[in-house]
UniProtKB/TrEMBL annotation:
InterPro entries per record: Aminotransferase_I/II_large, CobD, NHTrfase_class1_PyrdxlP-BS, PyrdxlP-dep_Trfase, PyrdxlP-dep_Trfase_major, PyrdxlP-dep_Trfase_small
Keyword annotations of the record: Cobalamin biosynthesis, Lyase, Pyridoxal phosphate
Cofactors: pyridoxal 5'-phosphate
Catalysed reactions, as listed in the record: O-phospho-L-threonine + H(+) = (R)-1-aminopropan-2-yl phosphate + CO2
Chain ranges of the Aminotransferase class I/classII large domain: 25-360
Xref: CDD domains: AAT_like
Superkingdom to which the source organism belongs: Bacteria
Stored Gene3D superfamilies: Aspartate Aminotransferase, domain 1, Type I PLP-dependent aspartate aminotransferase-like (Major domain)
Pfam families according to UniProt: Aminotran_1_2
UniProt keyword Glycoprotein, yes or no: no
Keyword presence, Lyase: yes
Pathway: Cofactor biosynthesis; adenosylcobalamin biosynthesis
Name of this protein: threonine-phosphate decarboxylase
Length: 366
């Protein structure tokens, strides 16, 4: 295992590697959070809700689940509120283990927590590599691996590539899984950033072998508060309820679910920002000679197009150069199949994106 930090968003863990002070002023492109920040009303609402800390939350989180169910067009029985997407991942693995699954396939490169969750519950992990510079899924191999092992984890849009496996391919995987009693777990942590709306919720009406994992911390920029949910068949969600620790989500976070989902203006502003900024940043990075993977999410993965194998070379050097310019990018040392040869950056505000582009331009200049 590499000694690089396993997640983004922790400058104090990365900067000392380069002899920089952990508390240095930094623009953080390493965590994929909405740069609009939390909705403006949130701080006041949290402050006003502090008295709720004196009582236990509703163990069924009925109000929050109904708000999610209404937003998704599902019955509340198919919704479980979780302590971030991270808890949803661990609950999915716990359910698979409970169902007797001993092996799972994970489509790589991807978020490292699927593997950790599986191993935690005694499930052996088989990697399945996305192929080529555009990170395509070999559908036939995926279907075979899913049915052989009993479960397949994939992330859509995928962290760190930003790629989105087409809905028709997902449907075909689900049909194959149904025939062989295999489960498809799809992490949709970044689906709120995808336009037009690509969420797979409607498939839950036809496929009881589908689990959808969601995060609310990315879109609403509240990773410290922790909110997510899990969607599945009523039976699967019922079993997951038995596996989840009681009161896993605190009352303040749970009380925010309905007002967050009701804030359509925030969602519209987010989409307008991303629709403008992602193509702009991608174009600027390409103009600097970088190979950028076309993304459906709020982040971009890139490498040096001029070099076929820059493993251990230019990308780690660029990471260090950026850190010295006060910019934190996400290294890829612990993504299987990338191993440091790529960098990932969040899409941020125009002035911040401009600062990133200028810093890279200074590095690539002779
Ligand atoms: C793909 C993916 N899923 C889930 C999570 C966990 O998010 P949360 O903060 O909601 O636990 C992350 C966090 O980076 C992620 O990248």
């Amino acid at each position: 295992m590499s000694d690089w930090p396993s997640h983004g968003g922790r400058p104090e863990q990365l900067l000392p590697r380069f002899g920089l002070a952990g508390g240095s002023e930094i623009i953080d492109f390493s965590a994929n959070l909405n740069p609009l920040g939390p909705p403006p009303w949130l701080a006041q609402r949290l402050a006003a809700s502090v008295t709720e800390l004196a009582t236990y939350p509703d163990p069924d989180y009925r109000e929050a689940r109904e708000a999610i169910a209404c937003n998704e067009g599902l019955p509340a029985e198919q919704v479980r509120l979780t302590n971030g997407g991270a808890e949803a991942i661990f609950l999915a693995a716990a359910l698979l283990a409970r169902q007797g699954v001993t092996q799972a396939t994970i489509v790589q490169p991807t978020f490292g927590e699927y593997g950790r969750a599986c191993r935690h519950y005694g499930i052996a992990v088989e990697p399945l590599a996305l192929t080529g510079e555009r990170f395509m899924l070999d559908e036939a191999r995926a279907a075979e691996a899913m049915c052989d092992t009993g479960a397949l984890f994939l992330c859509r849009p995928n962290n760190p590539t930003g790629t989105l496996i087409e809905r028709e391919r997902i449907e075909r995987l689900l049909v194959a899984g149904q025939r062989h009693g295999a489960t498809l777990v799809v992490d949709e942590a970044f689906v709120d950033f995808v336009t037009p709306d690509e969420r797979l919720t409607p498939l839950l009406a036809r496929f009881d072998n589908l689990l959808l994992l969601r995060s609310m911390t990315k879109l609403y920029a509240i990773p410290g508060l922790r909110l997510g949910h899990l969607l599945g068949s009523a039976a699967a969600v019922g079993h997951i309820g038995e596996l989840q620790p009681p009161w896993s989500v605190n009352a303040l976070a749970a009380g925010l679910v309905a007002p967050l989902l009701a804030d359509r203006d925030y969602l519209a502003r987010t989409r307008a920002w991303l629709d403008a900024e992602r193509p702009w940043l991608q174009g600027e990075l390409e103009a600097l000679g970088l190979n950028v993977v076309p993304s459906h999410a709020n982040f971009l993965l890139f490498r040096n197009a001029r070099l076929r194998d820059d493993r251990g070379g230019p990308m780690p050097a660029l990471l260090e150069h950026l850190a010295r310019c006060g910019i934190l990018a996400r290294h890829t040392h612990n993504f299987i199949g990338l191993e440091g040869a790529w960098l990932r950056v969040a899409v941020r505000s125009r002035p911040e994106n401009q600062a990133l582009v200028e810093a890279i331009a200074r590095w690539s200049a002779p």
